[in-house]
Design a protein that fits this description.
By secondary structure, the chain is an alpha/beta fold. It has five helices and three strands.
Length: 110
């Protein structure tokens, strides 16, 4: 097991680091300050094939940034958020999400 602090911008993106390890039957544990629909979309096909996913998200008083950050503006403009939200809502119950984060995600999805 290894740990690395990732800036999650430019060439130092979490997605690029974890994607090679997301093989069917593998497990993923992740501590993250946000949970973006667009990151979910990029990893969706791999995530649904994992044996187990554990997400630890920030406390309820922090924003999840469900619709992404400034860098996700192009993704928001594609008008695909509702469909992604539905897919994410179907996937969330299969993931182990710490605390009240699953409910917060589901509430953000609407």
């Amino acid at each position: 097991m290894w740990m690395k602090l990732v800036q999650n911008s430019g060439v130092d993106r979490v997605i690029d680091l974890v994607q090679p390890y997301l093989k069917p039957g593998s497990q993923l544990g992740c501590v993250t300050p946000s949970f973006s629909l667009f990151a979910f979309a990029e990893l969706r096909d791999a995530l649904i094939k994992l044996e187990r996913v554990q997400l630890i998200l920030p406390p309820a008083d922090d924003a999840l940034e469900f619709m992404g950050r400034e860098g996700d503006r192009a993704n928001r403009n594609k008008i695909q958020a509702r469909g992604l939200a539905n897919q994410c809502a179907q996937w969330l119950p299969t993931a182990a999400v710490a605390g009240d984060a699953a409910r917060r995600c589901e509430n953000a999805i609407g």
